[in-house]
Amino acid sequence: MELEDSSPVNECENLMNVVVESRKRFGKMCVEYEQKTSLMENKILNYHIETFASKKFKPKNYVTTPVSDDSKEIEDFSLELIEISKRFEDVRKKVKDTQEVVLQLKNDIVKKRLREPLSVDAILAKVKVKKVS
């Protein structure tokens, strides 16, 4: 009886081993196939990129440059802007110079002395204040 039981078990094990081995072999083949197909796809894509890069495309419609009054208007406008910016810079310089003159006048000692009265009594009072302190 044991011989009868062992033979189907052995056969089943043998069949399972065959299935496992075939799965391993076909799995390796599938992985290799995937690698080869991706390699070929990359080569084809690189070839397409190289061919597109080497081609020179000609436009269907050529763009013409406008040679009408628009260019003259643009040039006049740019000259006007340059002139306005120059005037603005001149005004800025004048304001800065005026500010410097005002600061110099505020700090001028001669001007302060001229504001003081030049009477004898005022000068004596000022000297007395200096001697006391």
Question: How would you describe this protein?
Answer:
There is one protein chain. With 133 residues, the chain is mainly alpha-helical. The chain folds into two domains: 1-57; 60-133. 83% of the residues lie in helices and 0% in strands. It has four helices and no strands. The protein has helices at 2-54, 69-106, 109-115, 120-132. The longest helix has 53 residues, at 2-54. The radius of gyration is 51 Å and the shape is elongated. The model has no long low-confidence stretch (mean pLDDT 82). This is ATPase (PilT family).
How is the secondary structure organized here?
Layout: H1 2-54, H2 69-106, H3 109-115, H4 120-132
User: What proportion strand?
Assistant: under 5%
Question: Structural class of the helix and strand makeup?
Answer: mainly alpha
Number of helices: 4
Unreliable parts:
none
Mean model confidence by pLDDT: 82
Domain unit count: 2
Features of the shown structure:
133 residues; mainly alpha; 4 helices
